[in-house]
Amino acid sequence: EGPDASRKWAIMDANGLSTDSAETKPSIEFWARGMVNGHASVNAFFGQYALKGDSIFFDQMGATTMMGHDMEVEMAVMTALAQCTTLEMQDSVLNAKDCDGNVVMTMKRN
Length: 110
Prior knowledge:
Oligomer: single chain
Largest sheet: 9 strands, antiparallel
Helix content: 10-25%
Shape: globular
């Protein structure tokens, strides 16, 4: 069962930073028609994605542009989304990896 199962995933950490201190718990939702949306802590993001094997491609991504008290988690999540090239399920955790195979974001079913 891949990320296109139209379910919401809680983002647990991004680029080694726990999301526990986020203003709003970060999440991402993959929709069956190739649409993706979520929350990075302060801002909402949205766009399109395509899966080919374990590779993921994000396209036409956008986000709201509000400022919050602490933008550290926000920046880590948005950076991880930009770095993500592959997805790997490990037990109940979905790991997003960069082109070098480093885990840049971990997610659990919401």
